[in-house]
């Protein structure tokens, strides 16, 4: 009979490096393992424990007193340290302990406490004994003589659940110094923390790990709601230590355009597109020498884009592996597909007693989730047949089981079963051609939707307009209306979370749908005829959000606004798409692209920014001479100028100029001339560039707009410096710095200071240039301006070359080039003309092979390390 145990302490052990021992010396290992098992069993039983079962090369033991578990683990470690007892083989065992209440069926235990103990063991090294905070609290005041605990702090275990504070058991006869624990903190990753326990899938977990070891592209296939995402995350966490360059989770559900798949992967890996080149090329270069695992989630709707990128990355990087979840196969050479079955469900031959059914995965999951919402819930001989019936009707599909279990707090098991049965009988009158499990899952969501209150239903379907999640503020703005007020949203959202229809993410600050549920909600939204109104509200909210963020990106809160825009980028793109579909959306779309322009620049997403802006401009305005269109064209011109699309930039800017002249907007005309100068310079027309720059500065001075004066002055100074007219360039740069300080625009002050540094190098004033670059770097670091820091690195490389410090010049230049590839910002022609002669001089001094070797080491530096190195060098020159 199944029963809930009293607080029990669970001990797990394992032999570190046993696989190699089995491969190298199988016969000796067989005899040594027999003695190992006997020594461990004797130590456990001597301390009143019970060996529950052996687990591969270790044991799972249970103790009523945690002190006994600690003593047994110490005795076992001391005994196994005598290699004479283990055939001369060094068997380094790792031990982990946790205490808690668990479920017990016959002679086995299962539940969260058991899983936690196993995970604590997996974080240990051979010879190390770890205990949880719970065990430490229970034994701290009654440890045996000679035994102590060392606090190792809180670690995030590889079960992706909450962090655990762990302690190391210490004794004079035990080793005490070990490397960092084998926790998630020990490896680069972005694996999201899970709020529920992982239940079942033990066999699939083992098989997937074996398959992943044998192939480089493994696709987990199965219908929606089968738990592909959760299992892939669980496997990724478990194998993470095999990938020194990280395990990276890429959620593709919010993406609707397959061309954005490389961008989604690049965003996670921190790889930025190179101007004028597809981001996939930057990804290929990034993975070439790295050993990493990519977890691509929800690929089916962008399968062709995923397949294309997967093939490119696997061909480029010999040590890259991809674990994907998709309802459709990639059909790429070398792909191995693992079809995920439903959770195990009791068959008709199984009895419905607790002991007979408690070990089945579907039952275990249902009981675990039901207990989470109703702690008093128990699986008993009385309710077991009904629970089994629910699990069978839901075909063991994890999502369906979780939705059903969430109702235990308000309905009896019998009521849940009756409603599920009713819904399935109704389904038999529908389309019989679809896959049964898909019908079952839809029925489960239908049923869950039917159980909602009318207000919950309204909110549920309105939330479908969000892509990639939403904040409470966004939900209040978009979903309120009619019978739902803004004040109702928080409680209603909580209800939807409690019923497992909405997931909380981002440390409780954001909400999201599982994609299957979002698609269902979207269908309901369309059926209700509310889609257009909800999407218009979403557009209104994100337009206001982006306009506020655009203003904030120029201030001291830039980092905060960047993070918020990162989180809602897919929603902003969704709002942009809606502008394209609505009859009156043109001018709203223009406002959107104008407000977000700085985000594309700072995040190095200029190609995406270009696409969005050009799409917005393709929407004809209701008024042909709209100032909003003028500004959108100006944005397009800027982006094209920064990415080297000079001819296209000129075309956009000329149209923008015509509209600005129609309105006689002198400030706008000045701004447009500034970027026409850059476009003309890029096209090799230096005379036109000078005319545009001079006109820009003249108009800016007439209007008295200090910001425009600052920008125009810098543009003209660049031209003077390009012409080697340093006497005219220098005062303009000084004016830029002074005006920028008045405007409290530290980033533009840094740009002016960097210009002065280039003038100083050209004049042979190395110490002045060094001092100026130190100032510019200090500003860039204080404001966290990557563009300014990148430019400071480039000019520092030029200074090093001028001083004949060849190796430093190449390393710094290479680090700046790597950063340029990430940001997408291309050096303008004036800066290029300054730097290239110095680099040519450096290349000649070092020789091609030496230059290339040093360049490779510089490209391998992190941006932060390069900045620190240059800062130290400049400081030493004082």
What is the global morphology?
globular
The count of β-strands is: 17
Class from helix and strand fractions: alpha/beta
Major beta-sheet overview: 7 strands, mixed
Flag low-confidence runs.
423-439
Query: Which percent range fits the helix content?
Result: 55-70%
- In DSSP terms, counting alpha (H) and pi (I) runs of 4 or more, how many helices? 38
Strand order of the largest sheet: 3-4-2-5-8-10-9
N-to-C terminal Cα separation, in Å? 80 Å
Q: Approximately what portion of the residues adopt beta-strand conformation? A: 5-15%
How would you state the average pLDDT, rounded? 85
Task: Round the Cα radius of gyration to an integer and report it.
Answer: 32 Å
Description of the structure:
α30 runs parallel beside α32 (746-763) and α35 (806-823) packs across α37 (848-859). The protein is globular and about 90 Å long. By secondary structure, it is an alpha/beta fold. A hairpin with a 2-residue loop joins β3 (50-55) and β4 (58-63). The chain is 59% helix and 10% strand.
List keywords for this structure.
single chain; alpha/beta; 878 residues; 38 helices
Explain briefly what this protein structure is.
The chain has 878 residues and is α/β, with parallel strands linked by helices. 59% of the residues lie in helices and 10% in strands.
Layout: helices, strands, pairs:
Blueprint: E1 2-4, E2 8-15, H1 18-24, H2 26-46, E3 50-55, E4 58-63, H3 66-80, E5 93-100, E6 103-105, E7 108-110, H4 112-122, E8 129-132, H5 133-139, E9 148-155, E10 164-170, H6 202-214, E11 217-221, H7 228-239, E12 247-251, H8 261-269, H9 279-287, E13 292-297, H10 303-316, E14 320-326, E15 335-339, H11 354-357, H12 361-373, H13 384-393, H14 398-405, H15 413-427, H16 436-450, H17 454-462, H18 472-479, H19 489-498, E16 503-505, E17 510-512, H20 515-527, H21 531-552, H22 558-567, H23 569-581, H24 586-603, H25 606-617, H26 627-642, H27 646-663, H28 666-682, H29 686-703, H30 706-722, H31 726-742, H32 746-763, H33 766-783, H34 786-802, H35 806-823, H36 829-846, H37 848-859, H38 863-876
Parallel strand pairs: 5-8, 11-14, 11-15, 12-13, 13-14
Antiparallel strand pairs: 1-6, 2-4, 2-5, 3-4, 6-7, 8-10, 9-10, 16-17
Helix pairs in contact: 1-2, 2-3, 8-9, 9-10, 12-14, 13-15, 14-16, 15-16, 17-19, 17-20, 18-21, 21-22, 21-23, 21-24, 23-24, 24-25, 24-26, 25-26, 26-27, 26-28, 27-28, 28-29, 28-30, 29-30, 30-31, 30-32, 30-36, 31-32, 32-33, 32-34, 33-34, 33-38, 34-35, 34-36, 35-36, 35-37, 36-37
